[in-house]
Structure formats: structure tokens, C-alpha cells
């Protein structure tokens, strides 16, 4: 039997995906995640194609920075300048200067 090349150069998928998760959680790209994990972007792409659950996890993690930013804005609406900017963007027809 001929053994194929290991996907992550002998490293476990658990270790590699843990590193990728760190990058995805700050909104990083797949290329950045692969570089951080020390693997090729092609290997990561192949892995994600074979593991839709990890692909879905990636998509969820990549949304975190946007959600955190939204929470920060909403939590600071008591500051008039932030409240005004929020209204200008959410209801420009009513609050645009």
C-alpha cells in the first residue's frame, strides 16, 4: 500500500485547527490562519472541504469581531456623540446632517 502525503506534515488536525481558530476569531482570513498554523492554504482548503463542521465553525468565528464592535457601540449609546453617529448611519433619512 502506498501512503499518501500527510495533510498537515504529521501535525494533528486538532493542533492545526486550534491555531486557525485563534485567527478566525479575530476576523483573519484562511490564508492568515494557514500561515499562523504553519500549513499551506491549499491544505487548509482541502481540510475544510472534507470537514463542513469546521467550515461552519470558521464562518461563525469570523463574525465575532463584528458582533463585538456592535456590542461596544450599543453599550456606549449613552454617550451623545456615539448615539448621534449611530442614528446617522441607521436612519440617515431622518438624522443626516
Shape: elongated
Biggest β-sheet strands, sense, barrel: none
Q: What fraction of residues sit in β-strands?
A: under 5%
Tally of alpha and pi helices:
7
Mean pLDDT, as a whole number? 91
Q: How many discrete domains? A: 2
Order of helices and strands: HHHHHHH
Query: What is the assembly state of the chains in this entry?
Result: single chain
Task: Please report the total strand number as a whole number.
Answer: 0
Radius of gyration: 20 Å
Q: Which class do the helix and strand fractions yield?
A: mainly alpha
**Regions with little confidence, pLDDT below 50 for 5+ residues:** none
**Percent of residues in helical segments?**
55-70%
> What's the end-to-end separation, in Å?
72 Å
Please sum up the structure shown.
The protein has helices at residues 13-24, 30-37, 41-50, 52-61, 64-75, 80-90, 92-95. With 97 residues, it is an all-alpha fold.
Describe the fold and architecture:
By secondary structure, the protein is mainly alpha-helical. It folds into two domains: 13-62; 65-95, no CATH class. 69% of the residues lie in helices and 0% in strands. It has seven helices and no strands. It has helices spanning 13-24, 30-37, 41-50, 52-61, 64-75, 80-90, 92-95. Helix 1 (13-24) crosses helix 2 (30-37) and helix 2 crosses helix 3 (41-50). It is elongated and about 60 Å long. The model has no long low-confidence stretch (mean pLDDT 91).
Secondary-structure blueprint of this entry?
Layout: H1 13-24, H2 30-37, H3 41-50, H4 52-61, H5 64-75, H6 80-90, H7 92-95
Helix pairs in contact: 1-2, 2-3
Amino acid at each position: 500500500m502506498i501512503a499518501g502525503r500527510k495533510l498537515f506534515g504529521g501535525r494533528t488536525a486538532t493542533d492545526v485547527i486550534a491555531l486557525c481558530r485563534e485567527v478566525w476569531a479575530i476576523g483573519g482570513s484562511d490564508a492568515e490562519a494557514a500561515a499562523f498554523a504553519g500549513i499551506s492554504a491549499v491544505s487548509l482548503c482541502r481540510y475544510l472541504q472534507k470537514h463542513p463542521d469546521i467550515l461552519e465553525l470558521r464562518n461563525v468565528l469570523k463574525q465575532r469581531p463584528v458582533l463585538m464592535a456592535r456590542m461596544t457601540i450599543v453599550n456606549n449609546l449613552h454617550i451623545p456623540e456615539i448615539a448621534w453617529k449611530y442614528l446617522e448611519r441607521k436612519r440617515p433619512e431622518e438624522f443626516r446632517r
